[in-house]
Design goal:
Blueprint (H helix, E strand, L loop, with lengths): L2 E6 L3 H14 L3 E7 H7 L7 E7 L1 H10 L9 E8 L2 E7 L14 H19 L4
Antiparallel strand pairs: 1-5, 2-3, 3-4, 4-5
C-alpha cells in the first residue's frame, strides 16, 4: 500500500493538534494519540517528533467489516505526523487500496468517502491560517 503525504508548515505537535480539532468539528472519535517520539525519548532512545492519530466512526467502518470482517485489521483510520528533514510531513494510506486486499468492493463508496475525509483533514491540518 502506498503512503500519501503532504508537507505541513507547522511543527509535529501543532499539526497533530490541528488534526484533532478537525476530528472534533466532525464529531469523529479519536481512539488514540500515540507519541512515538516521546515514547522513544522516555526509553532513552533518539527519535524525531512523530505522532500517530487513530480515529474513526463506527457508522462507516462497520459497513466495511460487515462485507469482510478481516478489514477490521486496517481500521480505524490512522494518520502519521512526523519530523522529516527539518520539516513536518503528514501521511496516510488511501482507503480505496483496501479493495485490493479485502472483499469490500461492494462498499467502494464508503472507501471513497473515507478517502475524501482524509484529504479534507490533511488539508485543514496543513493550512497556513490558524
Amino acid at each position: 500500500m502506498t503512503l500519501t503525504f503532504a508537507e505541513s508548515p507547522h511543527a509535529v505537535r501543532a499539526t497533530s493538534d490541528r488534526l484533532v480539532a478537525a476530528l472534533r468539528r466532525r464529531e469523529l472519535t479519536l481512539f488514540a494519540r500515540v507519541d512515538h517520539g516521546g515514547g522513544a525519548r522516555a526509553a532513552g532512545l533518539a527519535l524525531p517528533d512523530e505522532e500517530l492519530l487513530i480515529f474513526g466512526d463506527p457508522r462507516a467502518g462497520t459497513l466495511l467489516m460487515q462485507a469482510d470482517p478481516e478489514v477490521g485489521y486496517e481500521l480505524p483510520l490512522h494518520v502519521l505526523v512526523w519530523e522529516a528533514g527539518g520539516g513536518t510531513r503528514i501521511g496516510y494510506r488511501h482507503p480505496i487500496e483496501l479493495r485490493e486486499r479485502y472483499d469490500v468492493e461492494a462498499r467502494a463508496e464508503v472507501l471513497d468517502r473515507m478517502g475524501a475525509l482524509l484529504e479534507e483533514l490533511v488539508a485543514e491540518a496543513v493550512r497556513d491560517a490558524p
